[in-house]
């Protein structure tokens, strides 16, 4: 969390606003098997919008995303929501909440990113202004078991081909002699939908080196 130097008036205004706020109404129905009620983003805004505005306070939320990789393997996306509480005096408080967006059955990655951003906006706003709400999420938490991606499973299990340990040093050196770092090669292959070279046979790794020499990999580059 980051704060400006001039927090005196903001602190007083927020204290007044919080005295006027009520808890966010749990009037949304979850879509999961538990069918519980929860306070959605609209309910959180409804509980705090007027008290904030009447005390010279406003909230701005920005959303960003980035590819989530672990040791070069793609796991999904990370969605970050930065919530900024502003006062007319110029005082401000800024905090960022980052959540993963993962593949789910029956929902696209773009939709997963949207769900994660809404979830982060709701909890970021609630935490910033002090709104109470239900702990369980209305959608994300309802999956009985998340579907693990192939890349994520490979990164978790650390599976390598039996020839990897014996040939790893020589393969890495061969790449460096050709101007490539192993991590860059692995990341590029994963982005192309391929597995990491550590999972390949020795002959497949040799073919990759030959393809680099021949200008056949990366495609369209010499």
Describe this structure in words.
There is one protein chain. The strands form two sheets. Strands 1-6-5-4 form a four-stranded antiparallel beta sheet. Strands 2-3 form a two-stranded antiparallel sheet. The chain has 222 residues and is an alpha+beta fold. Helix 1 packs across helix 2 (41-54) and helix 5 runs parallel beside helix 7 (202-213). The protein is built from seven helices and six strands, in the order βαββαβββααααα. Helix content is 41%, strand content 20%. Mean pLDDT is 81; it is low at 135-146. It has two domains: 2-142; 160-213, no CATH class.
Entry summary:
The chain has helices at 8-20, 41-54, 109-129, 150-157, 164-177, 182-191, 202-213, and strands at residues 2-3, 28-29, 37-38, 57-70, 73-87, 92-101. It has 222 residues and is α+β, with helices and mostly antiparallel strands.
Specify Rg, calculated over alpha carbons: 24 Å
Amount of beta strand: 15-25%
How many separate structural domains? 2
**Principal-axis shape:** elongated
Please give the share of residues in helix: 40-55%
Order of helices and strands: EHEEHEEEHHHHH
Quickly give the structural class: alpha+beta
List unreliable stretches of 5+ residues.
135-146
| Strand element count | 6
Distance between the termini: 46 Å
Count of DSSP helices?
7
**Biggest sheet details:** 4 strands, antiparallel
Mean pLDDT: 81
């Amino acid at each position: 969390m980051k704060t400006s130097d001039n927090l005196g008036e903001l602190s007083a205004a927020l204290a007044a606003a919080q005295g006027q706020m009520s808890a966010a109404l749990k009037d949304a129905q979850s879509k999961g098997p538990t069918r519980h009620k929860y306070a959605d983003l609209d309910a959180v805004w409804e509980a705090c919008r007027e008290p904030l505005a009447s005390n010279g306070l406003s909230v701005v939320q920005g959303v960003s995303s980035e590819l989530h990789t672990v040791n070069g393997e793609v796991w999904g996306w990370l969605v970050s929501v930065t919530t900024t509480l502003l006062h007319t005096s110029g005082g401000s408080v800024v905090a960022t909440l980052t959540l993963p967006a993962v593949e789910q059955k029956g929902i696209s990655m773009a939709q997963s990113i949207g769900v994660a951003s809404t979830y982060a906006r709701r909890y970021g706003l609630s935490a910033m202004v002090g709104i109470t709400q239900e702990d369980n999420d209305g959608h994300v938490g309802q999956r009985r078991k998340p579907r693990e991606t192939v890349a994520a499973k490979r990164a978790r299990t650390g599976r390598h081909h039996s020839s990897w340990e014996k040939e790893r040093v020589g393969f890495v050196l061969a790449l460096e002699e050709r101007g490539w770092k192993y991590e860059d090669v692995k990341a590029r292959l994963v982005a192309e939908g391929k597995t990491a070279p550590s999972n390949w046979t020795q002959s497949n790794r040799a073919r990759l080196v030959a393809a680099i020499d021949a200008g056949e990999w990366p495609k369209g580059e010499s």
